[in-house]
Amino acid sequence: MASKTLAEVSQHKSSSSCWVIIQNKVYDVTEFLPEHPGGAEIILKYGGRDATGVYEPIHPPDALKKNLPASKHLGSLTQESIRVIDEQNDNREKTKDELRVEQARKKMPPLDRILSLADMEIVARQVLSYKALAYYSSAADDEFTNRENARAFLRFFFKPRVMRPVSFCDPSTTILGFRSSIPVFVSGAALAKLGHPDGEANITRGARQGDIIQMVSSNASLSYAEIAQAADPAQTLFFQLYKHKDDEIAVKRIQEVESLGYKALFLTVDAIVAGNRESDIRSPWVLEEQENGPLYFNQEEKKPEAGLNVFGTAGALVANDDRDMTWEKTIPWLRSITKLPVVVKGIQCVEDAVLAVEAGVDGILLSNHGGRQLEFSLPPMEVLYALRRERPDVFDRVEVYIDGGVQRGTDVVKALCLGAKAVGLGRPFLYAQSAYGTAGVSKLVEILQREILTAMRLLGASSIHELRPEMIQRVDWEPRRASKL
Amino acid sequence: MASKTLAEVSQHKSSSSCWVIIQNKVYDVTEFLPEHPGGAEIILKYGGRDATGVYEPIHPPDALKKNLPASKHLGSLTQESIRVIDEQNDNREKTKDELRVEQARKKMPPLDRILSLADMEIVARQVLSYKALAYYSSAADDEFTNRENARAFLRFFFKPRVMRPVSFCDPSTTILGFRSSIPVFVSGAALAKLGHPDGEANITRGARQGDIIQMVSSNASLSYAEIAQAADPAQTLFFQLYKHKDDEIAVKRIQEVESLGYKALFLTVDAIVAGNRESDIRSPWVLEEQENGPLYFNQEEKKPEAGLNVFGTAGALVANDDRDMTWEKTIPWLRSITKLPVVVKGIQCVEDAVLAVEAGVDGILLSNHGGRQLEFSLPPMEVLYALRRERPDVFDRVEVYIDGGVQRGTDVVKALCLGAKAVGLGRPFLYAQSAYGTAGVSKLVEILQREILTAMRLLGASSIHELRPEMIQRVDWEPRRASKL
Amino acid sequence: MASKTLAEVSQHKSSSSCWVIIQNKVYDVTEFLPEHPGGAEIILKYGGRDATGVYEPIHPPDALKKNLPASKHLGSLTQESIRVIDEQNDNREKTKDELRVEQARKKMPPLDRILSLADMEIVARQVLSYKALAYYSSAADDEFTNRENARAFLRFFFKPRVMRPVSFCDPSTTILGFRSSIPVFVSGAALAKLGHPDGEANITRGARQGDIIQMVSSNASLSYAEIAQAADPAQTLFFQLYKHKDDEIAVKRIQEVESLGYKALFLTVDAIVAGNRESDIRSPWVLEEQENGPLYFNQEEKKPEAGLNVFGTAGALVANDDRDMTWEKTIPWLRSITKLPVVVKGIQCVEDAVLAVEAGVDGILLSNHGGRQLEFSLPPMEVLYALRRERPDVFDRVEVYIDGGVQRGTDVVKALCLGAKAVGLGRPFLYAQSAYGTAGVSKLVEILQREILTAMRLLGASSIHELRPEMIQRVDWEPRRASKL
Amino acid sequence: MASKTLAEVSQHKSSSSCWVIIQNKVYDVTEFLPEHPGGAEIILKYGGRDATGVYEPIHPPDALKKNLPASKHLGSLTQESIRVIDEQNDNREKTKDELRVEQARKKMPPLDRILSLADMEIVARQVLSYKALAYYSSAADDEFTNRENARAFLRFFFKPRVMRPVSFCDPSTTILGFRSSIPVFVSGAALAKLGHPDGEANITRGARQGDIIQMVSSNASLSYAEIAQAADPAQTLFFQLYKHKDDEIAVKRIQEVESLGYKALFLTVDAIVAGNRESDIRSPWVLEEQENGPLYFNQEEKKPEAGLNVFGTAGALVANDDRDMTWEKTIPWLRSITKLPVVVKGIQCVEDAVLAVEAGVDGILLSNHGGRQLEFSLPPMEVLYALRRERPDVFDRVEVYIDGGVQRGTDVVKALCLGAKAVGLGRPFLYAQSAYGTAGVSKLVEILQREILTAMRLLGASSIHELRPEMIQRVDWEPRRASKL
């Protein structure tokens, strides 16, 4: 195929013929336009020109290969065109947000001075691009659920036991039979490249260093293979499955990760449509206003950016997911196509926990998707507490995990007292890798390990088996954070 | 009748003879003075001169015709007098508040960027005149009840169900047999012209676009006929009835709306006297001080504006209402004069809900008038919850609605889980039409529809019949809004 | 007796001979020094000179007569000395606090614009001297109890009844058989002259205008006779009795008020020692620092003002009270010396309410002294609620009143729903008279009357007998005030 | 031994040979390096030079003697070297923090104006060095537990009794048979010299003046003998025992204090490892940044100060403590080596209170170490309340004390109502001695005595035996502090 020139590409920018340039290669995406989960408009905006900058941070490298037939790969740009693009990139004026991030990255504190997950988040919030922060931190509606997930832990106090030998104390456990140095895993969280060029691989390498298990999202920004390659051969990876509405595509995805050595499937059931994450939806406008000033009601000359939709990034990610899964149909189907253990991620009430057990899954992850989906879904810690009181038998029949709102080792220990086998964290790992890459992830595990160990010893427990429901009490008041004034 | 001159009119400005000019026509209101619900003083203040500016936004155009005999319609001004008035109006210096509103109207964001009811209210609060905002937003005493109406929803969390087919999801319902695209209606709210020159017609047209039902207030600032004309022939309108203490006048009002095609009567029972809405009462003083500086205790030369009373706008609106209604007398009387379905609006406890059912009404609207009447009336959501627990049979015998404090689709869905057939919103529609006219109202319905649909799907409900009490849990803590610091 | 000169008086300023000048008369207080409830030091500070300015606002005019034998009344100053004192007073530089008050008094809003008790308090806080405000507003320790008294009302919501005839509505009642236009009385509150030169007489005249009953404090700053004279002959006054530890003095006080026509005795039992009112104790230092700058640890030249004690103004007032009263002894003794009805003021739990009934009193006033005595005494509204649940029979056997924290007509109506016969207010009347004199007091009654009437009508009650426990519900959440940001 | 020169000493600054100068004496600490509880690095930082400034405030004078064999005491510096050190000290530029403290010390208010423990703390917070304040005030993790200890008291209200004779009122009691003027003792708190050069002796002398009992910490910054010498022969001292992991060393420590006349052992069981006190851990960095500016991620030239560890000061203090104590082993062992009464300090739940009783101890101190150890340990006041409800028999079998969060006399009285024999305070005494030395401590006792006496009288109790559980009620709401705006 002959190399293309920029001039040639620029002819193809309409819905009747739309080409885009990604990393100096040209693609004909005309037929893909109606299928693009993020909508056709955002592609058309970049039709006929270079889209690498916006494409890269939110797509794995194999996305084009998986979604476009080979015939639509139109080949490379000419050397001259590549030179022009490079020059344009070199000369492009940085946005205010990019300049802000640059400054913030220069002022990051040494990693040694990060004492807690909160410290890590503070740094990450400063060095993340506005868009990345909006995607990572946003939650549904007014973000009550997101805050309540964390606050729920505050209503649980310890009844510590003294005069027990704890000089030896072991916080390790297994999850689905796989060893973990502490009862903590990385819960699936998408688009790590938004925060750091190495993306999910930072988490993979940090998880190895800390000897914990990573659950990789279907919506990872690296390919599943790239992540598997970043892992040590003996390292355990789990896979967070968003089931495609087309069973065949779904099967292909499962077979891919199974062959790559992923060890379990966490079927996500709480995100069949996107939650209403307003900060994320609003972020393109905020950036636009930051550069060009506000847009007013009657302004004729300024038009809002095309391609915005009220479901934001999340909407694009789940656009093709299966909204009609059922216990009767989906679990047996999954069993029929894979031998991997199956965990249901997104159980939000006792009734569904019981149904999941009856459907024969290997584990359940009590989660409301970090408060990003249904606003006012009960906090997982409250669901765990209800499950312990109402159906303690469930803990004997499947492994139970929770995620959402975990900030401290004491949070983890509280969940374990109530019967959780392990506790997942999502955003904290995204923040850690965004700020400090692999070292940040490794540091995070180290902090949690230290906090868990301290809490266990002061509770009088020398192994996780000694963490018992009797050691915890739900109180009828709520501690308040110190006011910062 | 000979045309009048300004000079002639200006002779009549006392309680023995009082003329006023409204839209270039002259009226003798001497005999009407003692009957004016807003008091004689405010009319006397404008006696002998043009009162159009203060009259128009708070009276429907047929108010003069309904209240003044033809003999008191003294005819037009002379052309020269009309010219003088126009000139005066053109030359009148704008008040600080008018200038503020003008500026704010220029800076309204595009409607596309309004993502939530809160966004809409923020804009409306900026572009409304101080007086309109005071009337719309004010509530009784310290406005606890108003805030509690909204906060009550925060104490109800969902127990979402997963693995249910929801790709098809229908949020439509009927109210008294009339279709509504979502389980939401416009609850009666007075004086829309205060916020926008097109007044209630904005809501009528927006309701049609969104396919929901509007309840029109007895105290609308357009005539009932004008509103009916703004509606599509197939569109459903309900009427919020404030019963006049004079039965004959009350009958006339009912017959008028029945003949105009209104489809149901919502008899208002919680506003027999006006609540103590201090912000509204205070608003004329605030405006006066803004223009002329504060008034002090011992100032001789400055006198407070006449015509103020401690019951404010609300007091004027209900001055002639019936304070002696009873279940035994009023409902049968109403049935005797109309075939329209009758709903009682303003039920505030379980006991009265039961009495209403026994009185044979078609529906009850649990409402405390948006917190504008009795301070510390229980939030409707709490009354609904008590009704569900104590008298679930009521839901089988009449349709139950609530209004007050609704801000999100999840609020609507919570009420439906507990058995409400539909949920009313008042202030949000006033804000929407004030800011963006008909388009604002239509946008509001669109937002609610999207939020309701998302909540239903994430709850696992594909129709409103699948929303059940088991899906909701009242919690013993209270979520807090993020602090804005 | 020969007139004294300033020079002569100035010789007597030690504990061996101490003279003071009050309103141009000279008194020998040497023997009184150890008996002075406020301590000897404060008198010695003014020994040998004019003490009128500090004496007047906190002593009734007959205090000298009652406490000093005639032989210690040394007669008048010479005319020349009087001239010198007048000149000194005229030339005295005003303190910063006096100048602040002067300015604030000029900026008081017209009384018509006072819509609520909160409005009144805001004005009073601006125009009161620092010392007066500290005495009036202060409460025990960290003032939790004071705030909780008010917040307790917020936990009670109404279950309003509709469709009841209320065009006629009568809020009047009787207290111990004496008529009151509304179920509200002035609760005993000391030292009204601190806030206004006419002192308690403002309240007396305002109470007459509003047709309510005033309870006069033993520690009034006018004499009991002066207050009686300010009253209309038909007007009802009650007396708040602080029992002197010396029974004879106590009897004399009771006989005095009985002969002056006071109609009942409210025996105060919750203030046998002074509460720890830190703001009051601190106020002299604050004023001193305001004038002269702060006092530091090692400053030699500056010495703290003499006469301060850690019990403040309150300590002085109760220094001679009886700390050993008992049910067995005190009530029979009181009955033996007076025919007036006896109410016990300061009941703080159900057990003591029952003991009071058994001791045969005519009424009980549930009160914790406005939070000024024992910090963490339960709010009276909570005690009332407990009494209603645990011992409803008490309401049939004695009249029950409460005071403390009342700010709104709804507060009054809530207490009446639970069975209170009437509700007392103390501080609000002090604030009202301080700011606007008699007119302020009268305005306060008018506001309460309007608010009570509105609340009763909207509750569906046409008389206070229709206010029932079923109309009120204690809720498990707490409304919050709007943030002022 | 020949005197050493600075030049000679400076040769020994590595782990193979490390000398330090303390108060002009030279010590060879090479072999001690690995045993130093605070880590070897911090010593190496001062190797080969004068370490007096950092050593003194946190080590008792006999620490060197106890920990270093005589052969390692290398003798004095030469006079010339001493002169050089003195000169260096004289010329050393003060740090910003030292200058701040100097200024603050000049502005301390006179002690007479300290009315409450809060007043005292405010002064102390201003005059303490950053490091001392960080150590004294810090608590575990986010310091919820520390705040909750204090807030727990707010949920307990009084049901005061009136008409009881209280002119005579005696707040004195005994603790383990030893008299105390009020039911308050000084709870063990380490490192008083950080706040004041006289250290723990201030507390000893103040406790004597106030006639209360001091519990001396194993980690006192004066030697146990020095403290005993500061005491009056008749004065009672208790000893807070941190048991060394080496039983022989532990026995030696117990025998020492027994022979010095200490009267009881409070075995500390809640601090076997250090809590995560982030403010304390962070304090060296904050000071460093204050002097030299912030340290950034990629700075090459600046390196973080050596010797920091994530367990901070507390970690060093407990590094050698016994983490394997048990009821079966440790209590009998303790009984076998001492006749002193044994109290277990750090009981945090009812179950362990019962085990302690069964183990035959003389008393239990309900404590979570001032919130400095396990975050989310229940507040002692809540544990006391649970113990009263669930196991009231415990109060008859051992003496029960609590500490943590006490700020007011009412807090003390509340604990006594529930059955506590006495209440300990730690931080408040550290603050008092830091600010005002002995006089501050004495003042603190005086304030508490006054507050306890007032509370008892207003409660109707004339001795501590009349404080009963019926006088207290746990409420279901929480009082809020006044906002300071």
TrEMBL record, chains A, B, C, D:
Spell out the PROSITE patterns in the cross-references.
Answer: CYTOCHROME_B5_1, CYTOCHROME_B5_2, FMN_HYDROXY_ACID_DH_1, FMN_HYDROXY_ACID_DH_2
Please list the cofactors this protein needs. FMN; heme b
Question: Could you confirm whether the keyword RNA-binding appears in this record?
Answer: no
Reaction(s) catalysed by this chain, per the record, are: (S)-lactate + 2 Fe(III)-[cytochrome c] = 2 Fe(II)-[cytochrome c] + pyruvate + 2 H(+)
- UniProt cross-references to Pfam families, sorted A to Z: Cyt-b5, FMN_dh
Give its localization.
Answer: Mitochondrion intermembrane space
User: Which residues are in the Cytochrome b5 heme-binding domain?
Assistant: 1-78
Q: What is its EC number?
A: 1.1.2.3
GO CC annotations, alphabetized:
mitochondrial intermembrane space
Gene Ontology biological process terms in this record: lactate metabolic process
- The enzyme's first-digit EC class, named in words, is oxidoreductase
Annotated FMN hydroxy acid dehydrogenase domain ranges read: 109-477
Q: Which UniProt keywords apply?
A: Flavoprotein, FMN, Heme, Iron, Metal-binding, Mitochondrion, Oxidoreductase, Transit peptide, Transport
Q: A GO molecular-function term, please? A: heme binding
- Which Gene3D superfamilies does the record cross-reference, listed alphabetically? Aldolase class I (3.20.20.70), Cytochrome b5-like heme/steroid binding domain (3.10.120.10)
Q: What is its main location?
A: mitochondrion
Quaternary state and partners of this protein?
Answer: Homotetramer.
Q: What family does this chain come from, according to its entry?
A: In the N-terminal section; belongs to the cytochrome b5 family. In the C-terminal section; belongs to the FMN-dependent alpha-hydroxy acid dehydrogenase family.
Q: Which PANTHER family does the entry link to?
A: L-LACTATE DEHYDROGENASE (CYTOCHROME B2) (PTHR10578:SF101), S -2-HYDROXY-ACID OXIDASE-RELATED (PTHR10578)
Protein name, as recorded: L-lactate dehydrogenase (cytochrome)
